[in-house]
Write a structure and sequence with these properties.
By secondary structure, the chain is mainly alpha-helical. 49% of the residues lie in helices and 4% in strands. It has one domain. It has one helix and two strands. Strands 1-2 form a two-stranded antiparallel sheet. It starts with 21 loop residues before the first strand and ends with a helix. 0% of the residues are buried.
């Protein structure tokens, strides 16, 4: 349903004879020589959809996501370490105040 519809690729002429041979004669024209000219229909080829732009965009989004996640993790670790240092300092300062009051 969400897959794009690609147009059929045009059939390109081929110089190779593949499949049953067919004599080429044009209406109203006589052959210029007595040799037989053969032409074969070229096999229909479907071109694969180009994924260059899509893959680059996906890679960019994934890279930005990884970088932002790493930055968020770094901020979280820094916040936790600052909180732990604050608790330790508060504990030490409170202990010194009680020690000096006695």
């Amino acid at each position: 349903m969400f897959r794009p519809k690609y147009p059929e690729a045009p059939v390109l002429p081929s110089s190779h004879v593949i499949g049953p041979a067919v004599h080429v004669t044009r209406p109203g024209h006589a052959p210029a020589c007595s040799c037989q000219h053969l032409a074969a229909p070229a096999p229909a080829r479907r071109m694969a959809p180009s994924i260059g732009a899509g893959a680059g965009a996906i890679a960019a989004v994934v890279t930005v996501g990884i970088v932002l996640t790493a930055l968020l993790a770094a901020v979280a670790v820094a916040a936790v370490s600052v909180a732990v240092a604050a608790v330790v300092l508060r504990s030490l300062l409170t202990g010194q105040r009680d020690h000096h009051r006695r």
